[in-house]
């Protein structure tokens, strides 16, 4: 042990930091090598000579750490780093195959062992129980994590990241089982609120599993384990939060449909879950079922489709106008662009009800301003645009574009030159906030930014999720973020902050950003660079993200909200496009005539380059 302490001291010298501080920073990684040894006794193992030797060694190492740091500091480190310790401990999972084990049933005997140390789920759960004993009171791990508003969110994100970035099937399987182990612990206490973060956790878990289903392709064993966990999530949610769970029903059913159509064990699991939701709980979820796209015509959906049609039609037959209204209303309530089944059903209706369509076309020509047909055309165009992004529709991009195009073809030629295609702004999550703050440009801008960041927390790309979480945490740590949060909360505008509880401002951790050293000549030199505005090579995505991040870092931006958006601008093209006007406006508000002249010159040159003048 003394040699290892000398190694730590040597590393500290190399890193130019105090070795004790280095020991504290690496504490979560160190402690997971020690504590599981004490937890073995909780499994009822007999004290073998090997186990006795290992426990003696672990006790000696722990005593030395406590001598260096003190017992009080050691216990404080366990309490303050509980979320990191939980992640490190879950990363040691290695479960042998067993049909009778909740975790082991999904393991393959050929799965290689991870790097040591590694432990069974039983040992890990026993160790987590041991860790809770370091805290006062008889509380569970989940309740302790819930005392810190963002601990659970951080653990879920780290496990999600590992699941998404694992390359091999056996790595993804182990990552999913780590995730399962933690989620099952959360589900057991979901009814208690998880420290007011229950709605966030429910949504986060649902979307993580939805994206995982799409990410793993045709790997039946991974799909089976994922759908099984999904079933547990749905069962628990139906017992304690049916109304909130119903808001996510569309995305769940849409994700399960492609797997339910397969004649495999996964297909049977998927259709079983669909029937559990729509058939067994059709009454409780009737409002949510009403907002579903039609199910496919396959025989496996017969029962579920019967329930859905009973709820939707209520014994009546819909006209084409009513079907279009239903299609549009579903689009306003669901969070996914994956409307493939809805598009197929709509195209069938448009093709079969030509007489009714002709009436709608005639009304459109007479009064296109309020025409339902124009709203439909705008929605179809929007779906085509959304499907062009490779991560937005769970692998159905081409099919969605084709079906939306066929719907437009059924509608026929429309004189678009006489139509002002409506903006989709009035269908975004922030439309109410924009209306409330219409006289306060800064609050309106900040509302849009926070709403977009909230939406990105369930993005299919985990790097975007991580960036959004980082931005929200940093923004709500600043005085401007705290002021925004309190004002927004006081006005009770919508449910935005309800889903952002893990990022709620902490009054004792307010971050005062250092002022930006402003050299307007230096800024002018950066924005004068032609490559920044009209690049000679590279694609639009790279260019727009680079432009936005460069202006944030080197543009003399003083606004706290805008200064903290670099992580999301680096990875989300649409956000960079949206925030760019805010950045330019903020720079033009400066007192520098030099910057204004350079912007004027660059704008003129950029336009000349675009139009070829």
What topology emerges from the helices and strands here?
Elements: H1 2-15, H2 19-25, H3 27-31, H4 35-39, H5 49-69, H6 71-80, H7 82-90, H8 121-132, H9 141-147, H10 151-165, H11 169-187, H12 198-215, H13 220-240, H14 242-246, H15 249-260, H16 265-280, H17 286-290, H18 302-313, H19 320-333, H20 340-352, H21 354-366, H22 372-387, H23 397-411, H24 431-436, H25 441-456, H26 462-475, H27 479-491, H28 520-527, H29 530-533, H30 540-554, H31 560-563, H32 566-571, H33 573-588, H34 593-611
Helix pairs in contact: 1-2, 5-6, 7-8, 7-10, 10-11, 10-12, 10-26, 11-13, 12-13, 12-15, 13-16, 15-16, 16-18, 19-20, 19-22, 20-23, 22-23, 25-26, 28-34, 30-33
Task: Summarize the structure in words.
This protein is mainly alpha-helical and 613 residues long. 66% of the residues lie in helices and 0% in strands. It contains 34 helices and no strands. It has helices spanning 2-15, 19-25, 27-31, 35-39, 49-69, 71-80, 82-90, 121-132, 141-147, 151-165, 169-187, 198-215, 220-240, 242-246, 249-260, 265-280, 286-290, 302-313, 320-333, 340-352, 354-366, 372-387, 397-411, 431-436, 441-456, 462-475, 479-491, 520-527, 530-533, 540-554, 560-563, 566-571, 573-588, 593-611. Helix 10 packs parallel to helix 12 and helix 10 packs antiparallel against helix 26 (462-475). The protein is globular and about 90 Å long.
Molecular shape: globular
Number of helical segments with 4 or more residues: 34
Mean pLDDT: 88
Q: Which band does the percent of strand residues land in?
A: under 5%
How many DSSP E strands? Answer: 0
- Give the terminus-to-terminus CA distance: 74 Å
Protein structure class = mainly alpha
Q: List unreliable stretches of 5+ residues.
A: none
Rounded to an integer in angstroms, the radius of gyration calculated over CA atoms is 28 Å
Fraction of residues in helix: 55-70%
Largest sheet: none
């Amino acid at each position: 042990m003394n040699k290892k302490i000398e190694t730590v001291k040597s590393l500290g010298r190399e890193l130019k930091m105090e070795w004790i501080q280095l020991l504290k920073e690496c504490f979560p990684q160190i402690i997971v090598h020690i504590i599981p040894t004490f937890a073995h006794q909780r499994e009822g193992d007999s004290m073998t000579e090997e186990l006795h030797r290992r426990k003696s060694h672990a006790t000696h190492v722990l005593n030395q750490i406590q001598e260096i740091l003190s017992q009080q500091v050691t216990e404080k480190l366990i309490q303050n780093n509980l979320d990191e310790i939980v992640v490190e401990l879950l990363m040691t999972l290695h479960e042998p195959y067993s049909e009778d084990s909740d975790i082991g049933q999904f393991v393959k005997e050929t799965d290689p062992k991870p790097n040591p140390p590694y432990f069974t789920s039983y040992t890990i759960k026993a160790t987590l129980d041991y860790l809770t004993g370091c805290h006062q009171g008889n509380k569970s791990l989940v309740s302790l994590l819930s005392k810190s508003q963002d601990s659970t969110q951080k653990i879920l994100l780290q496990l999600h990241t590992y699941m998404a970035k694992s390359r091999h099937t056996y790595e993804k399987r182990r990552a999913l089982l780590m995730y399962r182990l933690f989620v099952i612990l959360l589900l057991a206490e979901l009814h208690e609120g998880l420290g007011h973060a229950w709605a966030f956790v429910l949504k986060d878990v649902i979307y993580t599993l939805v994206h995982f289903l799409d990410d793993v392709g045709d790997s039946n064993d991974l799909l089976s384990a994922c759908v099984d966990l999904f079933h547990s999530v749905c069962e628990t949610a139906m017992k304690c939060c049916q109304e909130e769970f119903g808001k996510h029903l569309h995305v769940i059913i849409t994700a399960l449909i492609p797997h339910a159509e397969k004649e495999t064990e996964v297909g049977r699991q998927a259709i079983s879950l669909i029937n559990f939701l729509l058939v067994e709980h059709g009454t409780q979820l009737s409002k949510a079922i009403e907002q579903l796209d039609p199910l496919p015509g396959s025989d496996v959906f017969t029962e579920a489709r019967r329930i859905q049609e009973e709820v939707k039609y209520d014994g009546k037959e819909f006209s084409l106008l009513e079907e279009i209204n239903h299609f549009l209303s579903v689009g306003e309530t669901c969070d996914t662009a994956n409307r493939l089944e809805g598009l197929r059903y709509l195209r069938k209706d448009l093709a079969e009800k030509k007489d009714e369509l002709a009436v709608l076309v005639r009304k459109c020509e007479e009064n296109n301003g309020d025409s339902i047909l124009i709203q439909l055309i705008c929605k179809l165009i929007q779906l085509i645009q959304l499907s062009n992004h490779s991560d937005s529709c769970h692998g159905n991009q081409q099919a969605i574009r084709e079906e939306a195009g066929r719907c437009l073809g059924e509608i026929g030629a429309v004189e678009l030159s006489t139509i002002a295609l409506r903006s989709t702004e009035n269908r975004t999550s922030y439309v109410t906030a924009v209306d409330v703050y219409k006289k306060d440009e800064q609050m309106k801008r900040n509302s849009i930014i926070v709403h977009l960041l909230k939406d990105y927390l369930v993005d299919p790309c985990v790097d975007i999720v991580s960036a959004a979480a980082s931005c929200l945490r940093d923004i709500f740590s600043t005085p401007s973020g705290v002021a925004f949060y309190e004002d927004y909360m006081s006005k009770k505008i919508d449910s935005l902050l309800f889903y952002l509880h893990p990022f709620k401002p902490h009054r004792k951790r307010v971050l005062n950003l250092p002022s930006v050293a402003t050299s307007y000549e230096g800024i002018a030199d950066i924005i004068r660079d032609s490559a920044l505005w009209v690049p000679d090579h590279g694609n639009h995505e790279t260019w727009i993200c680079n432009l936005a991040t460069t202006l944030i870092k080197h543009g003399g931006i003083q606004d706290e909200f805008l200064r903290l958006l670099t992580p999301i601008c680096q990875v989300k093209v649409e956000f960079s496009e949206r925030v760019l006007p805010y950045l330019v406006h903020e720079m033009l508000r400066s007192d520098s005539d030099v910057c204004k002249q350079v912007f004027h010159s660059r704008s003129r040159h950029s336009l000349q380059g675009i139009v070829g003048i």
